[in-house]
Design brief:
binds iron/sulfur cluster; 43% helix; 16% strand; 15 strands; 376 residues; binds 1,3-dihydroxyacetonephosphate; five-stranded mixed beta sheet
Amino acid sequence: MTSILTAFENQTLPQSYLEADQQELCARITRAKQTLGTDLLMLAHHYQKDEVVAFADETGDSLQLAQIAAKNKTAKHIVFCGVHFMAETADMLTDPHQQVLLPDLAAGCSMADMANRHQLTIAWEVLQKQWPAEIIPITYVNSSAAVKAFVGDHGGAIVTSGNADTILRWAFTQKKRVFFLPDQHLGRNTAYHMGIPLAEMALWDPLTSQLLTNAGQEPLTNEQAPDTKVILWNGWCSVHQQFSVKQIETLRQSIPNLSVIVHPEAPHEVVEAADDYGSTNKILQVVQASPAGTKWAVGTDHNLVARMAKQLCPTHEIHFINPVACACLTMNRIKLPHLAWCLEELAAGRSVNRITVDPATTASALKALDRMLALS
Ligand code: 13P
Ligand code: SF4
């Protein structure tokens, strides 16, 4: 039997890939892709590095990539250039003869790691006592397969930033209250734009197992509890939390006629200070559809904003809301050496960094994923 240690060692990038230069790596990736032909489908999220996106068959936001993976029934190997929860989702949505690989296993998502099944089980018990049979769980796709499975088993659905409004509206046709995890900001921003006041939102703190008011500063009182429509998990994205109203105000002062668009993982006050908000794909579409010469400040990960400025929106003036913000470190784990290794191993008939979700978890999570895809 293979030990965990051996399995892990087998997933370690050989030194030779780190020593190869970019030109050589590109040539090797091109060769491996040619060998694999239509057996390979290479997907890349918008936050991936330019040199990785250059090799992708398809790029997109989380919703688009999940839909592409679900639709493709022919590719034997799906190399997912993104983060772990995206590869897990693709594995669950593809057929058994298809395998999903993540070029670097360290490409996780710190927000997805803020909710685990154990914490969710505790939260659910407390919330059921508070509001028996009145809550539906909704999880952002940025969550583990185990969390998705819990949500599927409890009648809930998955959302992405591209369909959160549609799914939340559906959720309220099912139950009186929504438990939204793990991103408090996406949940708050979506609910607020549906017309739910902040006073009717509460915050669940998984570290103290406490129900707090929306602002998270004091416990929710018995008087406030009956009005609560949305319970937000206290999770966030470290990249999008770096944006502030002050940055937007400063930019608006120095750049006349500036339009601002941000991702809904940004805090509520930032979304309110912007002109528009949406998924990475919506950001791209809105900016590209605006008249040439429009000046935009964009609040999302640096790789996408830089690519918009350089390549995707050549007739627009693109600014980054916070030019000194840290990029998504885990998205940036996927680099040419890992990609070359993964593809060359596949071309040689071997698999490294395969992502698999066990059948029981998959069956439960698919209930929630299929609800989302049917509604999207
Ligand atoms: P999108 O689905 O909008 O691409 O967002 C995914 C993500 O992780 C944003 O941080
Ligand atoms: Fe996760 Fe934030 Fe990175 Fe998106 S940008 S993958 S939410 S850490």
